[in-house]
Protein: Helix-turn-helix transcriptional regulator
Organism: Billgrantia kenyensis
Amino acid sequence: MSSIIRQIPLDTATQHHAHDFHQIVIGLQGRAEFEIEGLGGAISAFSGCIVPANHVHYYVGQGENRQLILDLPADAPSLTGYHHELSRLFDAPRFFALDQPLKHYLDFLLLEQSGCPEDMSAAQSDRLAATFLGCLHARLGGTPPQPRVRQLDLAKLDHFIDRHLANPIAVADLAAQACLSEAHFRSRFREQTGLSPWQYVRRRRLEAACRLLEEGRMPLSQIALNTGFAHQSALSHAFRSAYGCPPSQFRRSLPDRPPASLNRLDHAT
DNA sequence: TACGTTTGATCGCAATCGAG
DNA sequence: CTCGATTGCGATCAAACGTA
């Protein structure tokens, strides 16, 4: 089989899949995020990632974006015979940035492709791909670094939670924000925060409820709705289990002193 | 990663309390 | 009495966990 070179925008909703051919993704315009079996990173113009065959990868485009995709079957001429060494590039997923000469080569490749990409022969695609892979291999070397597990972007998750505080937030929603599967996200999240995603969201809700209690005389029923509790009783239950006193008692104690257990939010369950 | 099981939080309702 | 808030309880279901 031959290599295929194409340009596409990536969906702005998180997608995931795996395929039986290797792939190289290079950013041309805008930004995208990838998570390839635990290795995550962002792609912008002139940077890219290597996706080995049969590796499940999550990806999401951000706004208007365009990516150059090289689909490379293991038996493509650009990875076999004289070029067999280049297949080492796909031993593990990795991210890379193009240096100046490779940027020029990419410009050349795009020019070759421009006009009528369908007219580009398979042989021409293979030649262009082989040259690119050869240059990339020379720069990255054959032995990829040990995959480094990316830290979750908690600021981004906080922002997402705060924007959707009044609505139900499922772990799947947060996992999608992090471009991870739900199970992978759960374990990574607990490693990093010591809390389950659900506990973390509830803590944010209670913190928001505290702020509203401090700010004025908004009825508890309204505070419950604004902070994502389905019912005033749900807020009362959660508040009491976290702080040891009901919301109204907390409000009465203001501004003199917060509940003694205000700093025990981490123990909220 | 998928799947089955267990756990425990939430929901929704009703009863009750307390302040005005 | 009214209204806002608290508490209790059973049903439900999502999250967590264990295993393959």
About this structure: The radius of gyration of chain A is 25 Å. Residues 56, 181, 183-184, 198, 202, 229-231, 233-234, 237-238, 241, 269 of chain A lie near DNA strand B (CB under 10 Å from a C1'). The longest strand of chain A covers residues 57-72.
